[in-house]
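Q&A log
Question type: sequence-to-structure
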Amino acid sequence: MSDRYGSDVLSGDWRAPTRGRSRPVEAETGLVVEDVETGWCGAVVRVEKAGGMQVVHLEDRRGRTRGFPLGPGFLVEGEPVVLTVPTAGRSAAATAAARTRTASGSVKVVGHRARVASGSRIWVEGRHDAELVEKVWGDDLRVEGVVVEMLDGVDDLAAEIRAFAPTPDRRLGILVDHLVPGTKESRIVAEAERVSPHARILGHPYVDVWQSVKPARLGLTAWPVIERGRSWKHGVLAELGWPHDSQADVARGWKKILGTVRSYSDLEPTLLASVEELIDFVTVP
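Response status: OK
Response body:
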C-alpha cells in the first residue's frame, strides 16, 4: 500500500530555508546582486558608510543606481547571502574603480577638454542651487557644453522664456524650487509652460534646495520643521545650533551642508530625477 503522506516530514533539517542558509560574501565591485525585498538587481559599484551604517550601491542594466543597507537580504545567483565589507585589498580596487565615475554616477571621460558652450541652458533659482548642480553634475555638463545660469526668482518666468526664445537646437531647462500643487510656483509654471515646447520646467517639492540633501549627511533623521513667518534658512541653522544671525552665517552654513555632499547618492531622488531629465532634454538631439 502506498504512503499517501510520503516520508517522515520531521526527518532532516526541517527548519532550513527553501533556498538554503545565507553565506557571507564580500561586496566586491562588479558582483551582481539581487535585493530580496524589492527585486532590484544590479552590480556593486561601491560600499560606503552613511548615516551610521554601511551602504552598498547597486547599478542596474539601465545605469540606475540604488543604495541598500549592507548585510542580509540579498541573492547571488539565486542563493541567499549576507553582504560584507570588502577586504582592504579589494576595497582599494573598488575605490580605484569609483574614480572612473563622476559625482553623478556617470562614466568619467578622461582627457576630454570642456566643450565650447552650446546655445542650450539650464536655469536654476539661486546660487545654492547652482553650486549643488555644479558639484554633482559639473563634469557631465562641461562635457556636454551646457551652462547653468541663475534666475532672480521665477515671478516673471514666462517673460524670461520669451526673451530667451528657445528653439529645437537651443533648448531651455528650468529647475524650480518648491514646485507642489496649489502653490504660487505651480501657477507660475503652468503659465510659463505654454510659452514654448522647447523649454521644459521641472522642480522639487522642498522649501529650499538645502532640503534635497539627505538629512543623514548632517546626522539628522529629518530636516527641522520651521514655523510659518520665520526665515526657513535662519530657522534651520538655529535648530542645528549653528550661527544664524546674518546672511554671512547663512552662506557659511550652506558651505558646511554642501561639503557633506560627495555624490548623487547624498541627494533626494526627486531632485535627482528632475536634474537628470533636464540635462537629457537640453543635450539629446
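Response note: The chain has seven helices and eleven strands.
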